[in-house]
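user: can you give me the structure for this one chain? tokens are fine.
assistant: on it. calling the predictor now.
[tool input]
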Amino acid sequence: MFLRLLFAIIISTSLSCSKKEDLAYDPTSNKNPYDLYNEGVEAFEKSNFFFASKKFSEAELNFKTIELAAKSSIMSSFSLYGINFYDQAEQNLKRYFKTYPSDKNIVYANYLLAIIYYEQIDNEKKDIEPLIKAREQIDIFLKRFPETDYASDLIFKKDLIQNQLAAKEMYVAKFYINIQKWVPAINRLKNIVRKYDKTIFIEEALYRLVEIHYHLGLEDEAKKYANILGYNYNSSEWFEQSYKILNKEYKIVKKVDNNNKNEKDSFIKKIIKMIK
């Protein structure tokens, strides 16, 4: 719905030919691009996206002005997206970027491409490539257009992707734990701490590192991760479980000031650098 509303802002419901636009197409052609475009809009509004895409593509080929041709192209891409023809929509957008690099709707086109990648995410346990591609495209967008209306939506979607990637790491880490392959399990958990420290899996990852290192007799390492967990998440059930693992005489560092975010972030960065 969000994407549909934004798209409605970009396009007009129809185009009409004025005297100023008489040269926008070849009048000797049997195909009037304005008629083709408006047929596409009518089909689009009836959710007949495949037919709409065809009409917009025909209109693009017949328009002589770059602005109207570019508008037809991006509408064709969105129509293809509307019927989940993701590959075709992606290819059409990439052609649009090359053909109309200065078009006024270039920001929206980049947003649409990110959404196309995002909506192809299926099962992160089987294949993370769609997740990686979607995150990369979102990062490209946020770097180029950070202050646009679309940025906040993509930031939210990137957070979801990060959680899915962290879920994949945790899934693999638990697999290694179950077969007692401690080194690869530790590596996966450390990866969560390094790359996905803003996700919901950070607390469990720290706990698992406490658990594994204590099991291996590496108590200093176990205490290090318990300190990180206790300092940042001392109300967490994972912290309570890690506390039970360690020697009761050992005092775990408590968070001193919940409101001092800068100090907390600095501490986290310092600790993460210690993790090799």
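assistant: here you go. The CA atoms of residues 159 and 199 lie 8 Å apart. The domain at 2-120 is CATH 1.25.40.10 (Serine Threonine Protein Phosphatase 5, Tetratricopeptide repeat).
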